[in-house]
Structure formats: structure tokens, C-alpha cells
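Hey,
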Amino acid sequence: MQFQVAIIAESGSAGATLQHARDALARFGVPFADQKIDENRANVREVIAASEAAGAMVFIVANTSADPLSAVVAGLTIKPVLAVPLDSPALAPLDALRASTRGGPPVASLAIGKAGATNAALLAVAILANIDPILRDKLNNFRSQQTAAVLADRLE
């Protein structure tokens, strides 16, 4: 299966939050695939290689631990890695954000939770729109609609 965005998580608990990224990508017609990393991360190299072979150009990665998965993924690819910090039983929201932004291979760290997942998808769309004129038009239309909605809300 060919896809442009790989959505990567270590745990099933990230699934509900990452659904917001899936929904945003689907809205733009961007093909994506969910990739599950084992808890011990033994399969991470294989997952990244398989994702790239399937056409992944951007990775959206859920961070649910103090040892961020996004840094591991970024160390294995030259493709953009977008980190979505998530709170978990092991990590409070701000600690998840801190873990996502500490040193290591470069990643783009987004907001925590739902907003981060949605924005990661929108950023992935923006990255892909640089080489896809149809996607660029869809993104420009979306942004125009968002701007109009914000301006209309301010005027009321």
C-alpha cells in the first residue's frame, strides 16, 4: 500500500488522539497509514524502512514517554518528523512536551493532544503541498475558509 504520511505510536492509548490527525489528512485526501511500534521498540528500524519504501514523506509520531519516540524516528530518517506530545499514565502533558523538545535529532514539536495531532496533519499537508499543486490549492482554500471564519467571528 502506498501512502505519504506514516502515523506512528507505541501504544493503543494514543489512537483516539491521533484520530484527529487521521481525520485532517483524510479531509485533504492525503494517503496515510498507522504504524505500531513495539513497546521495546525492537521493530522501529523495520517500520521506518517499510514506511519509506511505501512512499512515506512525513512521519507524525506520538510521544507518550520521557524517552520520545520522535527522536528515535528522526535518527532513522531524513524525512520530516512531527512530534505530538500526549499525556499518558507515565507522563503529564507538560512533561510530554518537554520530552519532545529536548536535544537529539531535529523534530517539529507541536501542541499537546488533540490540537497537536490536528496541527501535525495540517503541517504534513503543507509540507506535501510544496510538490503537489492540487494539494496546494486545497490547502489555500482551507486556509481562506479558516481566515474568513475567524474574521466573521470577530465581527459578531
